[in-house]
Amino acid sequence: MPKGYWIVRVSVKNEENYPDYLAAAKPAFEKYGARFLVRGGKFEEMEGTSRGRNVVVEYADVETARACYNSPEYTKARAIRQANAEADMIIIEGA
Known about the structure:
This protein is an alpha+beta fold. The chain has one domain (4-42, 51-93): 2-Layer Sandwich (Alpha-Beta Plaits), CATH 3.30.70.100. It is built from three helices and four strands; from the N terminus they run βαββααβ. A four-stranded antiparallel β-sheet has the order 2-3-1-4. The longest helix has 14 residues, at 18-31. The radius of gyration is 13 Å and the shape is globular.
């Protein structure tokens, strides 16, 4: 079964409160076996538009990636993220 991924691009609006999101999301990430392949870091914008932070998270499969996103643990964290950042996010099946 192909792995599932979150691909997220984030523009943090409130750097001071953004760590609250990361702390709140940690239980969901642990519960669903999230593996961070990309978490911030330097990047080069080659085409199109970008955001300041880019994240790629690997899960066992798409169903697990979706379950994490919809979990009560992440729902709470998502509200904190949405209050402190703007994001584009997709869940995608790996090759």
